[in-house]
Amino acid sequence: MGFEELGNGKERRWGIRSLLRRKQVDSDRVKTQEGGHQLAKELSVLQLVAIGVGSTIGAGVYVLVGTVAREHAGPSLVISFLIAGVAAALSAFCYAELASRCPSAGSAYHYSYICVGEGVAWLIGWALILEYTIGGSAVARGISPNLALFFGGPDSLPYFLARVYIPWLDVVVDPCAAVLVLIVTGLLCVGIKESTFVQAIITSLNVCVMLFVIIAGGYVGFKDGWVGYSVASGFFPYGVNGMLAGSATVFFAYIGFDSVASTAEEVKNPQRDLPLGIATALSICCFLYMMVSVVVIGLVPYFAMDPDTPISSAFARHGMHWAMYVVTAGAVLALCSTLMGSILPQPRILMAMARDGLLPSFFSDVNERTQVPVKSTIVTGVGSAVLAFFMDVSQLAGMVSVGTLLAFTMVAISILILRYVPPNEMPLPSSFQESIESLSFQEEVPKGPVGISDKRNKQSGQDGTSKDFPLIIKNTDEDKVHEQKRRKYAAWSIAFVCIGVLILTSSASAFSFPEYLRYIICSLGGLLFLVGLALLSWIDQDNGRHSFGHSGGFICPLVPFLPVLCILINSYLLINLG
To answer: pTM for this one?
Structure first.
């Protein structure tokens, strides 16, 4: 489990071993201090909450309520949103610990590189870029139809913004979508503080629309009676299975809080603010989703809901036709906020990959005045604008979930690796490295990563400084052998969990297989999964976890059960994507 510090990427040896090499927690920050400009530290908790809520609450909630209620959950939709919120919180716990320990740009790509290796990080990085690019383009093309309603109805936009069919290309171009993407790109180039301020305003207006739906709908419901809850089929018309199927569907309404982690390097106090921002944003989204579903389902019986415009049609049935414009305004605001949340992380992931030598250094440049990666932002913005202009990416929207679920799964695996088999050489935060360097004139204290062997040389107690540093001290050769065995068993246990989850979820969803074969394969996968989980519960966690990265931040609870459950849920959803 060697741990290698990466250089500037100019001298790299490619091969199988390169796929497993990992980088230091603070390697990105050290490189920016050695040369180049750093990202501006401007973000506080409130701004992180605005990014998280704005990136999560898209226009989907204005449609999802009707679709899931009609086809899966019925009145039990509120429980579906609650279960999905709890499932999303599992990933949020994992993100919160890694974001506070490793506060650099790159989100799941950065964590995978530190804990797993370069090969997996490369895959996760491009999966996230694909997710945000396609997601942003799909969102941009969804704005123009909603915006057209304010100009008199569908296809009523001004001629220079209206969609046009080009026969010789057989495509429908959308100038409005491209213009909106370019506007957002320009705003993000101005600075993180300014762009976050605009996103906070848009998100606040969207939340006000949702509060209007809750308050006005609640008033109508109490005045006219909650007819949606008096249906003969009861609270669970599709049974518990239908409610759980609804949870799997609405889970994707919570995707977006990972955008907060991508801004970790721009947070003033990442150890405190990042976990608080992620948790607060997810809690607000869950509360709003549940309250909107409670009200809308109560106004109209689930089987009579309009699957396309459930909220507007629910108010129209009670004589409030004007509410359509308020709801449509909320949908446009939600789409604009989600568009900003989709473009914001892309340049930061590209910047992180360029710092590690996986992309040209062009992408790692940070503008001296605005202190944002302007070049990367322009490249990603223009790419998304071209895609939104020429292509109808709605059929590719499912790929957005692929990147997110892969990232969620890898972050949970990274938590297990961090707790049980962290790198032998402990990466030191820059502040602690400075302390070591300041003492180097008094006695020989190794600079850079401190290995197990270095720490063992200090065990005699003759070196009085060793006890002052949060390092792992192995007392005897017998302890070393025991530690190697523990790490080996822990690594195999993590592998058993991952392989068992893959076999279990794949076979459970392989409906084309004979039933007896599915049961056999499921039993094998379940056995591997339970054996791995039992071993992880029995094996002690590595003491190195206490000094890995930056201390004093959030600690994920219930390890190994919480990250293992997170891996299981995300893998099942990933296997069952359309």
So the answer is: 0.83
